[in-house]
Amino acid sequence: METTLALDEYRRYGRQMILDGFGLEGGFRSQLKLKRASVIVVGAGGLGCPALQYLAASGIGKIGIIDHDVVELSNLQRQVLHNEQTLDMPKAQSAALALKRLPFLPLWIETRQDAECIYRLDSNANVEIITQALAPDNAIVLLSPYDIILDCTDNPPTRYLLSDTAVALGKPLVSGAAQKFEGQLCIYNFGPTGPCYRCLFPKPPAPEHAGTCEETGILGAVTGIIGNLQALETIKIIIGLHDGTPSLLLFSALGIPPFRTIKLRSRKPTCPACGEEGQKLGEISNIDYVQFCGGAAPDWEKSGLVEGSPDRRISVKDLKMTMDDNTVKKRIIDVRSATEFGICHLPDSTNVPLKILVSDPHAYLPDAETPTYIVCRLGNDSQIAADALQSVCPEKFTVKDVIGGLRAWSKHVDVNFPVY
Ligand SMILES: Nc1ncnc2c1ncn2[C@@H]1O[C@H](COP(=O)(O)OP(=O)(O)OP(=O)(O)O)[C@@H](O)[C@H]1O
Ligand SMILES: [Zn+2]
């Protein structure tokens, strides 16, 4: 265990060590606590990146990063540790390089450890990278070496898995969430009576309310605020400055005031994860979290490409042929929001946002001679809209949804069509 600070660490961390109240036992001891602490950040995305940079800069001794995904261009708007040079690189690795300010991963520091997916970044072994998804069968093993867990992920199955694992390991879980202009922050399973995620949310959100940033949009600075708060709360826990009162912080960039805090009750005795009286969950490795949260999100484009009911669906290539044929009548309805329609749209398409169309499908009935093709971004909403129209129009009318939506259009028909 570390008992001293190196000489250069006094200068490096001096600005925080001299703070009045930087740990009850004084700056030196608090800095040592940070140096001895280990923290694991699950998800090196919008929340994980800002959290990681402040955790690393504060002098935390060991940081783990778990993420199975690779860096994509659409991440750079908010995932500030990644850059154009690290596109396609595993996010955990890209984030670790940024923390160490290294341009690439030199071979001499890439040492494989016990699991195939784990790398230690340098001889001080202070950043550990795990390029594998956190799953029920590895969560206990991967998280147990760390003192504090940060949930910087974006999906309900992983949130429940992280909470249950934190309870099983008796570790605090600093959890962040952000979507659109809004964010949330909560520390679960903290102290002897702090509630867990299941205490607060015994039931998962309906799948339609669990959209990803890709579906709903996100302002980068919002994830920056929540991710930074996660780092701050983690540092407070380590140096003993957190009073442990359970609360949920709600942030809205457009709200007045933008921050609100809700005091939470303590642990629920009947909670199946952390309660004394609850019906026990059982082994984490045996729990099907995806099933619990309503099943996996379908891959709409793929499912659409399967031979299905050709009379109700049309491929993007067939749509293109129809559009090029001036002798046939057609109508293309784009059911995305007006904002998205403004970003890009197919020539001669009309914008009728999904909500408006399904609230009054009769208003958008085609005529017998004009086939209607319905398009959206990914080919999901267009199916709902097509169903709504088909249900109110006579059999012989043609209403088809465009398989895979505009994403498929840019992949298979026009590579210059914007993807967002
Ligand atoms: N079970 C998991 N194990 C490891 N990493 C996870 C797990 N679940 C989610 N993540 C990671 O959490 C991060 C969440 O960040 P964020 O939502 O900003 O990124 P994203 O998924 O790239 O976003 P987008 O929705 O724009 O594609 C992602 O990098 C994702 O790979
Ligand atoms: Zn609980």
Describe the fold and architecture.
This protein is α/β, with parallel strands linked by helices. The chain has two domains: 37-292, NAD(P)-binding Rossmann-like Domain (Rossmann fold, 3-Layer(aba) Sandwich); 300-412, Rhodanese-like domain (Oxidized Rhodanese, domain 1), CATH 3.40.250.10. The chain is built from 16 helices and 15 strands. The strands form two sheets. A ten-stranded mixed β-sheet has the order 3-4-5-2-1-6-7-8-9-10, with helices on both faces. β14 (372-375), α15 and β15 form a beta-alpha-beta unit. α3 runs parallel beside α9 (220-239). It starts with 6 loop residues before the first helix and ends in an 8-residue tail after the last helix. 40% of the residues are buried. Residues 42-46, 66-69, 74-75, 79, 91, 133-134, 153-155, 158, 212-214 line the site of adenosine-5'-triphosphate.
Task: Give the helix/strand layout.
Elements: H1 7-17, H2 27-36, E1 38-42, H3 48-58, E2 62-66, H4 91-99, E3 111-112, E4 118-120, E5 127-130, H5 139-143, E6 148-151, H6 156-169, E7 173-179, E8 182-188, H7 197-200, H8 213-216, H9 220-239, E9 247-252, E10 259-263, H10 289-292, H11 300-305, E11 313-314, H12 316-324, E12 331-334, H13 338-343, E13 349-351, H14 354-359, E14 372-375, H15 381-392, E15 399-402, H16 405-412
Parallel strand pairs: 1-2, 1-6, 2-5, 6-7, 11-15, 12-13, 12-14, 14-15
Antiparallel strand pairs: 3-4, 4-5, 7-8, 8-9, 9-10
Helix pairs in contact: 1-2, 3-9
The structure holds adenosine-5'-triphosphate and zinc ion.
